[in-house]
Every structure is written in structure tokens, then in C-alpha cells.
């Protein structure tokens, strides 16, 4: 099992993560027996979930995804079920108590970040617009994420005044919102893959609902590598294509990115400082 994957899980979930890792081989074996699967290999790009390439009794190439059972993974399952249709990977089976999903394998599975930069936004928006946006009563509001602003971990990046700015923008967004829609919550370059039969598809939703502007933000600051010109290009492309209020989009970005920088600090993520530089730049444009 990938050592970086083990470290990430232990750091994020503590004792619960360590216990889950110990039980993982047995759980995978149980799922393979129940669902008639044969493991062909595991993903080299593991984050907080275990992902294996499998074949079923009908010789279909599929993906087995196993996560820590609980609130977050159950919401991901709910979101995957709600998103079934155009623009989203097929879900064949799920087991909430074991924290598992059996998914369509996308071939060749090329990530959006591998496409020429000038074409990425258009492909992203094509997928964004295909997703089922009907609100789901079973999914939590994205505003729950902002609870971290109430008691942030002491850090050298996010000052009290920047927390206040994020909270103020969040309130403005809530007051001006036209209502909640079903959000992916993490729709960016690594979570949009190409399949030769079905085209570009989204994977790995967070499972939340809220104002539709929130679902543009992950793409804006992903794979930037400090290139603020590229950030501005993405903002303009999305605003023009979707007929959005640009100032409102920037405020949503500042509010949500503040939350994500604080999460990165809590997780000890190496990219926290890079994310904070993007946040400081965006704050200066509002």
C-alpha cells in the first residue's frame, strides 16, 4: 500500500484512520467476495480513499473505491447517486456501512489537467453544465464548511481581519442567493476525466448543496502554480460563458478559499502557503 496514502490517512483521521487501515485488507476481500470482483491493481494516485481497479463476473472493468465509513463518505455516496446521468461517472453498487462504491472505469481516464490550458475552462464548463443541479434534501449545506472560521487553528497565514472578510462575504452570498442547488463541491482538473465512449465526466463529489457560484471555485485556483494571469483568464472565461456577476464570483472565491487555507493548515498540507498567496491576490481584486 502506498506509504504517502498511509501517512495522509493517519494525519487526517488519527486513531480512527490507523484502525481503518488495519481493517482495509479484510474489507476489500469481503467486498470482492460479495460483489464478485477480481483485483487487477490499485491506483497510484491515492488520497484519502483506497481505489482499486477490478473486474466483475461479467468481465467488466470497474473501480472499487473504499473510504472511512461515516458522515463524509455517506454524503459522497448520496451525491454520486443524485448525479447519475450525463456528465458523471456511473455508480453500479454502494455499501454505506462499509464505506464502498463500485464505479465505472473511465478509459483512458485522462485528467483535465493534461489538456492544453486554453481549452481547460471550456471542457470544465461543459461538464459543469451537464450535472444534475436539482437540490437534494439529503445533502448538507455547504455553509457548514464555514464553521472553521468560528474557531480557526492558530496560524501565520489567516489573520482575524481576513476571517472577518470571509464571514462578511459569506453573509452577502447568502442574502443574494437565488436558492440552493446540488453542488459537486470539488470540481477541478483532477476530478474531471476523459472516457473514450462517454466523453468528459466528473468523479469524486463532496456531497453538499448551496449557491451555484460555489461550484466554480475549486477550478479557479487548482493547477495555478502561482500564475495569476491564468487565474484572471479563468475568471473571465467563466463569467462570460455563464453570464455571472464577476464581483460576486470573486467574493465567493475569497470566502471559500479562506476556509480551504485553514483546512490545509489543519492538515499540515504543503500547499497551504501557495493557496494563501492566491487568496491574498484575490482579496486585493475585490
From TrEMBL:
InterPro entries the record matches: Kinase-like_dom_sf (IPR011009), NH2Glyco/OHUrea_AB-resist_kin (IPR006748)
Pfam family, one: APH_6_hur
Residues annotated as transmembrane: none
GO biological process: secondary metabolic process
GO molecular function annotation: phosphotransferase activity, alcohol group as acceptor
UniProt name for this protein: Kinase
